[in-house]
Amino acid sequence: MEFVGKSFSGILKIVAILAVVVILGHLLIYAIPFLFFAGLGVYLFVKLKNYFKINFATKNAKTNVKADASNSTKEGFKDKAYDNLDGEVIDVDYKDV
Questions:
Q1: Sequence-distant (≥ 6) Cβ neighbours of residue 54 within 8 angstroms
Q2: Tens digits of per-residue pLDDT, 8-66?
Q3: Using the 8-state DSSP alphabet, how is residue 53 labeled?
């Protein structure tokens, strides 16, 4: 019976490793859909939170920023008023109708 004792421990180790691999593989296969939907839920939650944060919470501030940006592009027009006569004046003669 000495041959059984020597090879039995090796066989037992192989069977134990195989059992652990099969159990973990089985759990992994059944856990993949749950992990996928959990990840999808977290992703959608973050995207929706950022969407509402950008589009609803700062709507007035966003409008003011856009108004300031459009006014800053027209800075050159603020300095040149229509009643500014310091520059060249063109005299135009009109005919009376």
A1: 62
A2: 778 888 999 999 999 999 998 999 999 999 999 999 999 999 988 887 765 555 555 65
A3: I
